[in-house]
Amino acid sequence: MKFETFKAGRWQPRYQYKSFEPVPVNHEWTWEDPTINSLLEQATRALGELNAFSLIVPDIDLFIEMHVVKEAQTSSKIEGTQTGIDEALMPEEQIRPEKRDDWREVRNYIDAVNTAIAELQTLPLSNRLLKQTHAILMRGVRGEHKQPGEFRASQNWIGGSNLNDASFIPPHHDGVPALMGDLEKFWHNEEVVVPHLIRVAISHYQFETIHPFLDGNGRIGRLLIPLYLVSHGLLAKPSLYLSDFFERNRASYYDALMRVRVSNDLIHWVRFFLSGVAQTATKGRDVFRQILALRTEAEQATMDLGKRAATARRSLNVLYRKPILDASDLEKALEISTPTANRLINTLIEKGILVEVTGQQRGRVYAFDRYLKLFLS
Fold first, then answer.
1. Comparing C-alpha atoms, which of 38, 29, 37, 45 is closest to residue 266?
2. Do 318 and 182 belong together in one domain?
3. In a shared domain, residues 255 and 322
4. Is 212 in the same domain as 265?
């Protein structure tokens, strides 16, 4: 199938509405547009540079955890949640009651990402894995009664309050299993000679068009991207998440997906996607560089602490995973006494590593502010 002559699907009349029935994607793909070749080269190079950092940075998993938190917060924000990255790092009891539903959705996403990545050790990227991940995403939150972990058995829609004023109506539920089966085969079909970044661009479009679940399709579809890259060896660690790019270019993101369905313009979508990969991978590489510089600076700041230096360095590893904490968090993580934890926190404040963020005398919470800011830019 050539991009230039691609027909995305057909509008099928139903009772009082029309559903969009996309064509299968498990076949060869070619294109003549030279811009795609150039963007593919840029994206591949940037992805390789990002992956190199994940292979050479010591204790990389410490920092990957913050990438996951950032992804969970941003991907959920696209769906309307109002949880900040600082709130996502706090325990539930510190979240205002009216914001806890949003907080739980973000925490579910973090659990879903971590579980899915771990499952890739024993399970291939598959519909089974996506269903398991979806069940975690929907656990105990809005959407928990909408067939969590199962493909939908009824018609859904995007935009509007019902089928009559929807902005887009995905395929009829009867066709979802076959379409998702075709998509799964496309992920693993070695007889199809298509670069992985092109394949994952097509896969994300197709997944969002099928909209196989009643809820959570945006988040699962965006998570599909790093799952694909890790499962096919393009990334050693889940360090690339496009939700930040999609959120900053939200109107263009939705427009690019709809242009395929309405105008068969797959070229525009692939260009947009590859640009997103290149920009996001480059930004991720730069963040890793900044993390390494900050890490060196923070370790040097603790070298003159004498006998306390070793404990202070251990506390830094806690902070990379949990950059917002209280004294009890350090007590538990380092297995130290309350007085020792408080003295350590005071030392880290003096060294410019921690700042107190509540302004309270009791129940104080502290932040590794300079580290957090690397993920907020």
1. 29
2. no
3. no
4. yes
C-beta of residue 81 within 8 angstroms of C-beta of residue 102: yes
How far is residue 102's CA from residue 105's CA, in Å, rounded to a whole number? 5
Question: CA 242, CA 219: separation in Å to the nearest integer?
Answer: 11
Measured CA to CA in angstroms, residue 90 lies from 105, 158, 367 at distances of 14, 32, 11
Tokens of 191: 């007889």
pLDDT tens string 103-117: 999 999 999 999 999
**pLDDT digits over 187-197, tens only?**
999 999 999 99
Closest C-alpha among 2, 211, 232 to residue 125? 232
Q: Are the C-beta atoms of residues 205 and 230 closer than 8 Å to each other?
A: no
Tokens of 160: 């509007």
Q: Is residue 291 part of a domain?
A: no
Whole-model pTM: value is 0.93
CB 276 within 8 A of CB 292: no
Residues 275 and 357 grouped into a single domain: no
Is the separation of the CB atoms in 24 and 8 below 8 Å? Answer: no
Confidence band of 217 (pLDDT split at 50, 70, 90): very high
Residue 215 lies in a domain: yes
Domain of 180, in residue numbers: 3-20+33-284
CB atoms within 10 A of CB 346: 11
Q: What is the enclosing helix (H) or strand (E) of 325? A: strand 324-325
Is 95 found in the same domain as 235?
yes
Task: Assign residue 362 the CATH number of its domain.
Answer: 1.10.10.10
Radius of gyration (Cα) for the chain, nearest Å? 23
Sole residue written with tokens 């104080």 = 364
DSSP characters over 264-311: --HHHHHHHHHHHHHHHHHHHHHHHHHHHHHHHHHHHHTTTSGGGHHH
Decide: residue 1, CB within 10 A, 0-12 exposed, 13-18 middle, 19+ buried.
Answer: middle
CATH number at residue 163: 1.10.3290.10
Closest to 106 (Cα-Cα) out of 9, 236, 216:
216
DSSP state of 366: E
